[in-house]
Every structure is written in C-alpha cells, then in structure tokens.
Amino acid sequence: MNTLSILNTVSARQLQRDYKSIFANVNKTNTPIMVISNNEPQVVILSIKEMDNINKFFS
After folding, report:
1. Taking phi first (over 0 means left), then psi (-120 to 50 degrees means alpha), and beta for anything else, what does residue 25 get?
2. CATH classification at residue 12
3. Cα 31 to Cα 26: distance, rounded to the nearest angstrom
4. Which residue pairs from 8-12 have beta carbons closer than 8 angstroms and sit at least 24 positions apart in sequence?
5. Which residue range is the domain that position 48 belongs to?
6. In this structure, are residues 8 and 29 in contact, taking their beta carbons and an 8 Å threshold?
7. Dihedral angle at the C-alpha atoms of 15, 8, 34, 12, nearest 10 degrees?
8. CB 13 within 8 A of CB 38
9. What is stated as this protein's family in its record (predicted)?
10. What is the arithmetic mean of pLDDT over 8-16?
11. Whole-angstrom distance, CA of residue 47 vs CA of residue 24
C-alpha cells in the first residue's frame, strides 16, 4: 500500500516561492507535505512534533 499518495503535496517551485507559509502550515497542523519535482515525489516535510512522535514510536 502506498500511503504517500494521501499526503498533501507542493511543487518544488511552490516551496521555493512560499516556504515560510508552507513551513508554518506544517507546524500548525502537524500534517506532512510531500514535495514534488517533475511529477515525482522527492521529500516529505514534517513538523518537529511529528518527527518526535515517529521517533518515539520506533524507539
């Protein structure tokens, strides 16, 4: 099952133009955002809180 398809996405160009509000949204909602370049997933942006939750889960 590919769970990445349910993430919110932004293009790499959109991230370059509007990173402050994208980061603020990720931090406010704790919802990961996938960055797409050339129609391919590249990375996922997580809030620090969400990353801590993931680390606790795998510890």
Report:
1. alpha
2. 3.40.1620.10
3. 5
4. 8/32, 8/33, 8/34, 9/33, 9/34, 9/35, 9/36, 9/41, 10/34, 10/35, 10/36, 11/35, 11/36, 11/37, 12/36, 12/37, 12/42
5. 3-58
6. no
7. -30
8. no
9. Belongs to the phD/YefM antitoxin family.
10. 97
11. 9
Q: What is the pTM of this model?
A: 0.81
Q: How many domains does the chain have?
A: 1
11/13 Cα distance (integer angstroms): 5
Centre a 10 Å sphere on the Cβ of residue 48 and count the other Cβ atoms it contains.
10
Type of residue at 15: L
The amino acid occupying position 2 is N
